[in-house]
Amino acid sequence: MRILIAGGAGYVGSALIPHLLDRGYTIDVVDLFWFGNNLPNYVGVLEKNIFDLQVSDLAGYDQVIFLAGLSNDPMADFSPAKNFIFNASAPAYLAYIAKKAKVKRYIYASSCSVYGYTENELFDEDCPVNSANPYGISKLQGERAVMQMVDSDFSVIALRKGTVSGYSPRMRYDLLVNTMFKCAMKEGMIHVNDPAIWRPFLAIEDAVMAYTRAIEANESLNGIFNIASGNHTVGEVADLVKFAVEEEFGQKIALDIKHVRDARNYKVSIDRANTILSFHPHHTVRSIVRSLISNMDKCGDWDNCKYYNIHVFKELEKLNPVDSYALTQAAGGAR
Fold it and tell me: In angstroms, rounded to a whole number, what is the distance separating the alpha carbons of residues 170 and 87?
């Protein structure tokens, strides 16, 4: 099977691709490498703007995975206009030409951010979505655009992922568990703005398995699936990170608890993914922290701007301020 991964050099792609290669798949990546290239040397690379891809570029691929776009709220809030181009228009266009190229399946990296703010409910995929922020809205727009292209010859699977955390060769410290771990190691303190809000978290190893299950699902399968390793309040995540670091290093970690209301609050059911995709997560917050600890020698420069998507994005804007269309040249590397 030949698979093209848009944004494959990003945080998730850099962990996913070695796993897929081990399973015997042929992988090519379209990416402009905002955050460097940590991929195996024998992965094929298409250095093209997603919007410049043509049907002929996708000929011969069995599946296309969209991991590109702006990947979190700070980036979306910094430039809402570019957020909607990267997260809504780009996946729609890529799905459109993939279908014309006779690609059999399209997998879209959606987000549980589409749920916005909920009150004490476990949301499944049929529950209403009400995100009011640019990132959540754009991810929902991209999701709806690609899902409407489903037909008997074109399968589409959208994975609404929880907040991914853990070690990746393209490391990030702007994600929930990773950020708390970084603060614990650097400052001896974990900061929590709103301990009451709920978040679904997703170990990167479980994210890799979710994409694998989607790739290997029956060719007639379509649908939207919540993907998470579990649900916790942010206060509980802080406790779990604190205990794991203290257990490993024998040093006391302080908690800085504030009560600043967050407009995002959601927890999700993964029953559909369990039943239909055979997705069964195996990881916990503690196992994520253990993985981060064991890989500290590879990415222990806590302040390096390359580990924070918003810093890289701002530098690109500062060094080369261009119009919104021209900046879509970087869409392939934004994850």
Answer: 20
Residue 81 host element (H or E): helix 80-84
For the chain, the C-alpha Rg in angstroms (whole number) is: 19
Which one, of 140, 145, 174, 178, lies nearest residue 160 by Cα?
A: 140
**Residue 66 host element (H or E):** strand 63-66
Give the Cα separation of 193 and 103 in Å (integer).
Answer: 44
What is the tens place of the pLDDT at every residue in 133-178? 999 999 999 999 999 999 999 999 999 999 999 999 999 999 999 9
Q: Both tokens of residue 132?
A: 């009011």
Largest CA distance in the chain: 58
Among 266, 296, 311, 157, smallest CA distance to 222 is for: 157
- Tens digits of residue pLDDT in 222-237: 999 999 999 999 999 9
Which helix H or strand E contains 26, and what residues bound it?
A: strand 26-30
Q: Measure the CA–CA gap between 51 and 155, rounded to whole angstroms.
A: 22
Q: What is the pLDDT of residues 249-268, one digit of tens each?
A: 999 999 999 988 887 899 99
CB atoms within 10 A of CB 10: 30
* Burial of residue 191 (number of CB atoms within 10 Å: 0-12, 13-18, 19+): middle
Would you list the DSSP string of 121-154? EEE-TTS-----SHHHHHHHHHHHHHHTT-BTTB
CA 287 to chain centre: 19
CA distance 26 to 198: 38
Phi, psi dihedral angles at 46 (to 5 degrees): -105, 105
